[in-house]
Each structure stands twice: as structure tokens, then as C-alpha cells.
Amino acid sequence: MNRVEQIKAEKDGLDVGPEIATFAREGWEAIPEGDVQRLKWHGVFLRDPTPGLFMIRIRITSGITNAAQLRTIADISRRQGGAILDVTTRQQIQLRWLTIETVPGIREALEAVGLTTLQTGMDNIRNVVGCPVAGITPQELFDASPAARAFTAAFVGNRAFTNLPRKFNVTITGCKENCTHAESQDIALTPALRDGTSGFNVAVGGKLGSGGYRIASPLDAFVAPDEAVEVCSQIAFIFRDHGPRDARNRSRLAFLIEDWGVEKFRLELERRLGRRLPGAGEDARLAKATDHIGIFREKTEGLNYVGLKTPVGRLTADELAEVARLSEVYGTGEVRLTPGQNVIIPHVPDRWIGDLTEEPLLEALRYDPSEVMRGLVACTGTDFCNLALIDAKGHAMAVARDLEGRLPGLKPVTIHWSGCPAGCGNHHVATIGLQGTRVKVDGEIVEAVNIFVGGKSGPGARVAEPIMQNVPVSELPPVLEALARFYPRRARS
Fold this sequence. Notes:
Layout: H1 3-10, H2 20-26, H3 33-38, E1 44-46, E2 54-58, E3 64-66, H4 67-80, E4 84-87, E5 93-98, H5 103-112, H6 145-155, E6 170-172, E7 187-194, E8 197-204, E9 217-223, H7 228-242, H8 253-260, H9 262-273, E10 282-283, E11 294-297, E12 303-308, E13 314-316, H10 317-330, E14 334-337, E15 343-349, H11 350-357, H12 361-364, H13 371-374, E16 376-378, H14 392-406, E17 415-418, E18 432-441, E19 444-453, E20 465-472, H15 476-492
Parallel strand pairs: 6-7, 16-17, 17-18
Antiparallel strand pairs: 1-2, 2-5, 3-14, 4-5, 4-13, 7-8, 7-10, 8-9, 11-12, 12-15, 14-15, 18-19, 19-20
Helix pairs in contact: 4-10, 6-7, 7-9, 14-15
């Protein structure tokens, strides 16, 4: 039994909750090591690069939030968190620079506006990813956000789901434009039509970390929206009961699927459901993908949503508070977060679009970024992550600024940075993917990357191809310039 399994066997992660107040009184150094890990079940993470300081990860299902919630997050960050926060590739927000003494009050403040941090880390079902413009975009088969919320309500705080072999990623989407990287998820419910009925096709066993990108296996099953919670729950329970637990790097659902095969897995799912599942429907997704950056028409005549590029997902508290204010001035107070680490202000009437685009914040968070900046994604990096090998966000921004000057007329390209093999920057699904490493140059250890090209999710998903290793970050701009000119054309050929 590995150390994490021992920790879980000794005490459920949720059971550390009542002890957080004690930790706040006694200080971070008094927290037992096992409880340091269990705090992750409550979304509270002690980070080695910032000794004594914690990160809090906030669950935001499908990225759908509002001004009151964002204003609360911004206020916490400004007063107690160094005024820096991050939007993640799972549509969540991470608060930084927090002391354990502030954690009880922060959790109370978040809960007061309907937010939770529960089960956002370790061996839990992570934030359920969905289309960030669900319910308002004309480019959807149906609004899947109710199913995502219902599934979230089923597992958050439920001990039946708190002892999985490893983390578990889920997307539930009705969007036709492939905006959630469905093929990299442990469970992917994507829009489909069967006999004139709208529902989901099901794929299982996708992943990015633990050995690289594995494209999720189609289960040849069609699920109605009102069946989504039961089906997703039973898949999670199969993983809980049969998933490998010996080696952490081989404990994802993908390895159970490879061991069992899709047919055995489907039969076990049907046994637990007590019924046969109909075969897959017609995939309703389009060939293209979108990032929802720009100005787009909503279903309701006269309304628009405005997607703003948030460079590498990093925001200041003041910027987040301004997003909240603009959402109230020009919309209805609703805000959406995307899997590309960006923000969306929906429900903007035609007559106010011009005024919104003139707001000073939109100089920093642009609705019309360069193609280099538009497709830029980066994980946390060495600033705050225990696993990262490079300063992913810092290097991503510096290199992107350089490439903007080199490639002013660049065609659409995605450049994703992951600070380590865990793949939190989704580098395996990008046109150009960069995975952090370190290499010795002239006797000195320097930050470097391994380079991958041609990755893709959605219909026709492809695993990115590794083409270069150990490229020092200082030498990247001319290398990426050449790749950016060639590989986008190759990928379309």
C-alpha cells in the first residue's frame, strides 16, 4: 500500500474538516503530515515553493459564476492572498499566499456566496468541466449545465466518492464546438442524436498526465440527460472498486480500461445500472473547435457574449473585481470561465457592446488578441507548484510577446505550456505543446522544454508528436517561430 492509500485508510479526507479551526490556532507547522494531504480534500494546499503559505482551489461547475462570487474572491485575495489569483484549465479559481490562520474565515466567506472548495484536490472527482456558454450559445445541441450541476451535487460531500484510486476528471457538455477537451477526460459526455432524441455519447479513460495523453475510449453508449448522474456515478464507482491502487503513476481509469477492455467495462456498467445501454448516437459535434474569445451572438436576439483573453489565466484581485463590475454594468452580473483560462461576460445588449469594448480593462483582457496570445495556455509553474520544473507562466508570456513581434500575421495556433509531465497545461492537445524540464548547459542547470506538435481533441483527436527534447527556454523563440509557421498548415492538410 503506497503512502497516499495509507493516509486514506487511516482517515477519510473529509474528516479533517472539523480540525481546520485547530490548525488555524496552532499554526501550519503543527499540522500532521497525513492531515496536510487530507486538507486537499477541502481544497486547501500547502505549497513547497511558499513555505507556510497555502493555495485554495474553488469549485465552479462548468465555469458559471457571478459578480457577487467574484467580488468575494477578489476581496479575499486583496486582503489575505497577495492580490494574485489564477483561472485554471478546469474553470476554477485558485487563491494564493494564504496562511492557515485565515482559512476558516475564507471558507465561511466563500460558502456565504454559494461557493465550495470541497474535493478539488487529490483522489476525488475534480471540477466538472462544461461549455462556458452553455444555455446561451446557438452552437449547442442542448444546455448540459443542469446535468453537470446535478452530478456535482451528487458527489460533493458524499463519502461514497472520496476514496478513488486517483483524481477523476469529467466533462459534461452539449456544445458542438469541442471547447472542453473531452478526449482527455476520465468521463466525457458529448452531444449526440439518437432516433431524433438529444443526449450524450459516452467515452471513458482519457487522461493527460501519468504517462501522457490517452484518448478516451468510446463506450458505444447513448445516455439521456436525465440519466447522466446515474451513469457517471456508476462509472466512478467501478473505478473506486476496481481501479489499480499500487503505483500512483498507473492508477488512473485509463489503466483499468486498458486492462479490462471497453466491452468488459461496459458490461460491468450495465450490470450496475440494471439495464442495457443503447448504442451510441450520431456525434453532433462540429469538426472545428472554438475558444469563445471575441464577440458572439447569443440565442436571445439582441444579446451577445464577450470572451476576454486572460493571458495564462493570471489575474490581479483588482482585475477580477473589475470583471465583476463590468458584468453588472453591461450584462446581468453573470460571468463564465473557460477551459482556456479565459473569462466571458454574457448577456450584453447590442447597444452596449461599443461601450464595453472601450473599457480600460479590455486593453489588458482583450476580446481581439493576437493569434499567439489567443491560443496561449500555461500551468501554475514553479511560482507555486511542488511538481513544476520551470516558470511556466513567466516564460509563456515572455516568449509569446517575442513571437507576436516575429509573427504578426500568424494563422490560428495554440501553444500550451505544462511545467512538468503531469500535463496541467494540456500541452498534449495543442498545436505546439511545451513540457517543462531541466538540462545542463555548460555545467549549469537551466530551464528547458520538450516540444510536441500536432495535438488535437474533439472528433479526429490526435496525440501530440514529440519532436524535440531539452530545448533551453532561452533558445525557444526562433524554434517556435519556425514551428508556428509550419505545423498549423500541416495539421490542416
